[in-house]
Each structure stands twice: as C-alpha cells, then as structure tokens.
Amino acid sequence: MPTTPHTERHFTGSRTVRDVVIGMSDGLTVPFALAAGLSGAVDSTRIVVTAGLAEIAAGSIAMGLGGYLAARSDIEHYDSELARERREVVELPEAEVAEVETVFRAYGLTREQIAPIIQAFRNRPSAWVEFMMRYELGLEKPDPQAALTGAVTIAGAYIVGGLIPLGPYFGAPTARAALGFSVALTLVALFVFGYVKGRFTGARPLRSAAQTTLIGGVAASAAFGLARLLG
Amino acid sequence: MPTTPHTERHFTGSRTVRDVVIGMSDGLTVPFALAAGLSGAVDSTRIVVTAGLAEIAAGSIAMGLGGYLAARSDIEHYDSELARERREVVELPEAEVAEVETVFRAYGLTREQIAPIIQAFRNRPSAWVEFMMRYELGLEKPDPQAALTGAVTIAGAYIVGGLIPLGPYFGAPTARAALGFSVALTLVALFVFGYVKGRFTGARPLRSAAQTTLIGGVAASAAFGLARLLG
C-alpha cells in the first residue's frame, strides 16, 4: 500500500492563472495568424500594424466584455435556480424527497437507508437546497467580484499575447521582412506558454507546448495561404 | 399549492446549439470589428476582405482546433481521475470513507446515519466511484465523439458569422462605402442572434439581444477609433 498521504490533485492553477491562459492563448494565436496572413498579401507594415492593433482591440473587448456579461448571467442563473430550489423545498417537499430518493436508490440504498438522509435534509432545508444545487444541477455558487477581475485579466492577457507577434512589424521596413522574426518569436512564445500552461493545468507540459504551437502554426499558415491566394 | 407538474428547466439547448452559439458569437463580433476598424484607416476593399478572410481562417482554426484538443484533454483528464478514484476505492478505502463522511456530516447526518450509505457504496464500488467523480470532483463523463463534432460546428459557425460583416465589402467600390452597410447588417444580425441565443439558453431574449449587440458595437467602435488614430 502506498505511504504517500492521500491528497486530491486537480486543476492546480488559481482562477487568475486560468484567466491568463484563456486570454493569452487566443491573443498569441489570432493576431499572429492575422499578421502572418496579411504579410502574404500586402507589404506595408503600417497596414499590418493597424489591422493587428484593431484585432487586438476587438478581440480583447469581445473576450473581456463577453466574459464579464456571461459571468453576470451565470450569477443571475444561479440565484434564480437557488430561489426555485428554496421554493420547491417548501412548496413541493414530496417532489424533492422523491428526487433525493432517486439519487440514492441509484447507488443501491434501500428506502429505509435513505430515510435518515431525508430526515436530516428536512431538519436543515438550507443544506438540502445546497445539495440539490450541487448534485442535481451541478451548480456551484459563483463569485460576483470574480466576474470583473476575470474580464480585466482575460482582456489584459489577450493584449499582452497579441503584442508579441506584432512587435517585429513596428521596426521592420517591409511586412515580408518582419514576417520571419514574428513567426520565430511567436512560435517560441507559444511553445513556452504551452509548457507553462501544462505545468499549471496538470497536463504533460511538452505535449501542451506542442499543442499550442501546432494551433498557432496551423492558423497562421492557413491565413497566410488564403491571403496569398487573394493578394 | 401549484398544480403544474414539477419539471426542472435548465439549459434547454442541445450541445450543437451551444457550439453554434460559441462560434457565431465570436465570428460575428471579431471580423466585424476588424473590418470596421480597417475601414477607418484604409480605403481598399481588397485589403479589408483579405484581412477579414485571414482573420476568419485564423479564428475558426484557433477555436475549432483549440476546442478539439481541449476536449481531448478533458477526456484524458476524466479517464485518469477515474482510474485514480477506482484505485483509491480499492487501496485506500478508509480515506474514501472519510471523504464520504465529511460530505454527509456537512449536511447534518450523524455517523450512524451515514453508515448505511457507506455500506451501500462498499457493496457497489462502481457506484461509489461515480459518486465521488460527480460529487467531489464535479466531473461528468465526456463524450469522445462530441469532441470532433463540436470542433467542426464551432469552426463552421465562426465562418458563417464572420462572412456576414464581410459581405458588403465584396461588392462596394470603397471600404468607407461598405462600412455603413456592414455595420447595419451586422448589428441586426447580432441582435437577432442574441435574441435566439436567449431563447435557447433560458436568458431573457431581449436582454441577451442587447448584450450581444453591445459587445459587437463596442468592439467595432474601439477598433475603428484606434485604426483612425493610426491611419
């Protein structure tokens, strides 16, 4: 038998790490692919920089504001489901009892074994409601403060990620001259980001690194090829 | 007491609806804002169309391929957690018993009332594992087939959404001439999309419509203003 203490290891990163990963993952990929794609069609760095910054503005707002409003909706959804479960525990206790029985009968408990659970729930309606929310609906109480922090974090990470592939275009004479530096810099950044992400999320770091590099590379190649065909 | 039957209403849309919502939400917003932004800086429809199509290629691949690989990771994560719980139920049953006791003591059950639950779990280890996966880890079994279908659906919805704001640029003489049509068409599309999305997700449809329109409008305005400053 193993002698190590029993600890549950899951997603080891905090919420902030998760938000940085979400924002930077897209921020490194899409502006990179757009800049590479445009370099296949136009030679003006000004156009690539303008398009890249416009994309970063649009993408960071869409992700940040979109995420914020979605989180607000989640909170309202939770609150309305909570109110409904609370009402049902009072108004339709027999229906809720039947649901608890269904849950535990599925685990092989008899009616007699389930009775004390139901009695405990009847004595503590708030615990009963919490159990139904979590077990039946799979909902955990969302944190209202986190919605705003998360939106700002995701948008900020998107901007930071997006400025990396765009960097070389600020200094180079032509878009084609900047392309090589941008591709090299961004593929390295994607690899490092994927590796760190793997460490935080519990995935195999090298595999995570290969995946993020692959996604960025495929997206950029497709955008470049498509723009080349049109340009 | 209400006489309506007790039914739980949650997310009423299927997985496909959810994937279409994810893809189209970003597809309508980001290419729209990029095209509007570029129209503030350049007058060539060819450049706007090239940048727009490059963005659609990049965004659909990043979302589709990224989502596919993430779903694959979820499946592997679930399988490894499942294997670990199965092992622990055999090798460290007392630790797992303590975890079950902690869960039910939090609901006010006594040690005597919890005993039959633990006995039932001991008799049916697979039910025990399923309970721990669902209750303790909040994990439900992912569907492997769904990963590929979801990736294709999200990417397809992104492409369809992205072609709407780009449409007017294909026919117009200048980018500035196309801009008005693109803005009008896309804001209507965002409103209709948000309304339908609200109907499917159980949110208030008009409010959902206002939110998606707001996100698209803010993102496009920011991209336009930024590109104007640089152009």
Describe the structure.
Chain A has 231 residues and is mainly alpha-helical. In chain A, 83% of the residues lie in helices and 0% in strands. Chain A is built from 8 helices and no strands. In chain A, helix 6 (144-171) packs antiparallel against helix 7. The radius of gyration of chain A is 25 Å and the shape is elongated. The relative contact order of chain A is 0.19. The model of chain A is unreliable at 1-12 (pLDDT under 50). Chains A and B meet through helix 1, helix 2, helix 4, helix 5 and helix 8 of A and helix 1, helix 2, helix 4, helix 5 and helix 8 of B.
Annotate the secondary structure layout:
2 copies of one chain form a homodimer.
Chain A: H1 15-39, H2 45-91, H3 93-105, H4 111-123, H5 125-136, H6 144-171, H7 175-201, H8 205-230
Helix pairs in contact in A: 1-2, 1-6, 1-7, 1-8, 2-3, 2-5, 2-6, 4-5, 6-7, 7-8
Which key features would you list for this structure?
homodimer, 231 residues, mainly alpha, 8 helices, 0% strand, elongated, disordered N terminus
Strand content of chain A: under 5%
- Helix and strand element order of chain A: HHHHHHHH
Relative helix content of chain A: over 70%
Oligomer: homodimer
Task: State the major sheet of chain A.
Answer: none
- What gap, in angstroms, lies between the N and C termini of chain A? 66 Å
The low-pLDDT segments of chain A are 1-12
Helix-strand makeup class of chain A? mainly alpha
Envelope shape of chain A? elongated
Number of strands of chain A: 0
Radius of gyration of chain A: 25 Å
Largest contact between chains: A-B, 79 and 79 residues
Mean pLDDT of chain A: 86
Number of helices, counting only DSSP H or I runs of 4 residues or more of chain A: 8
